[in-house]
């Protein structure tokens, strides 16, 4: 196998995103120079997304086409104030059906699942975000569509931006989530007030992606030469080994988010021009930065910073709308959205419990920190606790099956979230008494 074949086999997602970069630059150049009208811009990103879907997913691209067609049909037939429950229900049923198909093939038939199907379902999850975002905008009257049966051309003109938003080639495979109103303002403003040339910032972010991949490769090589032995009595080695494994899995997410930022920036999206006089940057569309996220000393901070646009979407979709137990309902829906594997149940419910414990512990202990060294010690311990809790969550969610739970038990890492949950129960009882 040649070098290119090896790179393609191990990094297919990154390679597809890299191959889309020239089309992003082409869109930016044509739009900035005025060669594309507003409708032409919508058609460019829409057709580009459709072609990308067919090339990467093959026949499974029909999953996305079916969802979009159903949503457009709902927009034409259902009152805007009632469209959200219908759109949400139909989309989640469709997505969950394909999640169950994958589980049936994996666990019942014991046959390999096509990578194209995995990509299609992953893109379907992102499409769920965009569909429900538009349906919530319609329900809350932040976006208004008026269809006149006597004017079919007007209806087509109004539907084209929505379809383009669903199939935008810059966000089809990897996000980040951009609101429909912001998508429209970006498409309209790229000619009127175009951002500066993104070539330099894209090149810089590509270097960052390469560094992340090299760093991940270094961790993989280290772990291959230092395989953890369950008979070893050194608990610290077990903690470090499982932490390194979880860090490798997180590096993969950071690489994917960064390459998705590159593609959006190449098309001229994501430039943030600060009106307060601060320096402008290209991070207006971002799902997370490694340093900022990993330096979080609290579970609640990590939850907000990790996959930031998805966290905001979950907050709007579930947390704000849920009257009782909003935190657990939000994480519960997240495991439903991710696919209902056994590891998802353990991972997301553990995440919810440790975030809840974080609220109570911080509120109870932080006022008692009088001296500087106590605050420093508390910060260090909180960071270690956050890292080990997130390690348990990531291992459970990414490995998905019973083997992940065995791994957490074997290395004693699972004691961290258990201790957090026990502390939560104690503090809840203390607050009840007083």
UniProtKB/TrEMBL annotation:
Keyword annotations: Acyltransferase, Endoplasmic reticulum, Membrane, Transferase, Transmembrane, Transmembrane helix
Entries under InterPro entries matching the protein: LPLAT_7/PORCN-like (IPR049941), MBOAT_fam (IPR004299)
Any one biological process term the GO annotation gives: lipid modification
Localization: Endoplasmic reticulum membrane
Main location: endoplasmic reticulum
Annotated GO CC locations: endoplasmic reticulum membrane
Membrane topology type: Multi-pass membrane protein
Residues annotated as transmembrane: 12-30, 42-63, 155-175, 227-249, 325-353, 376-397, 409-428
GO molecular function: serine O-acyltransferase activity
Protein name (record): Membrane bound O-acyltransferase domain containing 4
Organism: Mastacembelus armatus
